[in-house]
Amino acid sequence: MSSGPGLRLAALPASLTWQETPVSSELRGDAGLAVTASGGTDLFIDPAGGEPTLTAPRLLGSPPPGDFQLSARVGASLATTFDAGVLMVWFDERHWAKLCYELSPAGTPMVVSVVTHGWSDDANGFVVDTDQVWLRISRVGAAWAFHAHTDGESWQLIRYFRLTGPPDTTALVGFEAQSPLGPGCQVTFEEVSFVAQAPGDLRDGS
Q1: Which residue windows are coiled coil (predicted)?
Q2: Whole-angstrom Cα distance, residue 134 to residue 79?
Q3: What average pLDDT does range 191-197 have in this prediction?
Q4: Residue spans per domain, the chain
Q5: pTM of the model
Q6: Which CATH architecture has domain 2-193?
Q7: Residue 151 CA to chain centroid, in angstroms?
Q8: Distance between CA atoms of 106 and 95, rounded to whole angstroms?
Q9: Looking at the predicted structure, is the pLDDT value of residue 1 above 80?
Q10: How open is the CA angle 25-64-76, to the nearest 5 degrees?
Q11: Pick from 86, 102, 89: which is nearest to 189 by CA?
C-alpha cells in the first residue's frame, strides 16, 4: 500500500511515494537519502511456495518513457543475514525485481539480485570488499539491466532480463531497505543519478 505525500529528490525526474513506511527516512541534499527499515522486513516470494513477504519499505516513482539509468552509491549497516540496501523495479506485488547490497549467510557483503514474475528467484553476484557499492538499474527497450561496481570505474553486468507487469500496470523504480532476520537496517543512498538513456554497451563496463 502507498502512504504519505510524494517526496522530491532533485536528482530524479519524478516524485516518490512510500509503499510500506520505514522507521525513519531523511533526504540528504539533492542526491541523497537515508532510510531505516524495521526488523522482520523483506521483499521475497519463495519459489518453493508460501505467501509473499512484501513488508520492506520502498520509495518508488514513475520514470519518464524511454530508456534510462538510475544509479546510487549504497551503504548499509549490514549486521544480520539478508540485511540489504536495494534499488528496484516494481510493477505490482507479483512482478518486480531488486538489486541488493546484502549480507550473505556467510557474513560477507555481496551484490545479490532477485527477479520476481509470480515467484522470486535469487542470484548471487559478487562479494563486496568495501563498505559501499554502486548499483545501477537500466531500462533498455523492453528489457532491464542490473549493474554494480566498487572501483568507481567499470560497471559489471549482474542481470539482463525481461520483466513486464499485468495489463494497465507501468514500471516504478526507486529504493528499498530490509532486515528480514535482524532488528533493523540503516541504509544510505548517495550520489543518486538519473540519465535518460541506456548504457552504450551492457558488457564493456560503461
Answers
A1: none
A2: 19
A3: 97
A4: 2-193
A5: 0.96
A6: Sandwich (2.60)
A7: 20
A8: 29
A9: no
A10: 30
A11: 86
Closest CA to 75 of 32, 121, 46: 32
Q: 161 and 40 in contact (C-beta within 8 Å)?
A: no
Q: How many residues does the chain have?
A: 206
Please give the grid coordinates belonging to residue 147: 549493474
Pick the closest to residue 14 from 80, 65, 90, 76 (CA basis).
Answer: 65
Partners of 2 in the beta sheet? 19
> Can you tell me whether residue 62 is helix, strand or coil?
coil
Model confidence pLDDT, tens digit, residues 117-135 = 999 999 999 999 999 999 9
Closest Cα to residue 59, out of 95, 20, 28? 20
Nearest C-alpha neighbor of 135 from the set 149, 125, 114: 149
Residue 166, SS3 per DSSP:
coil
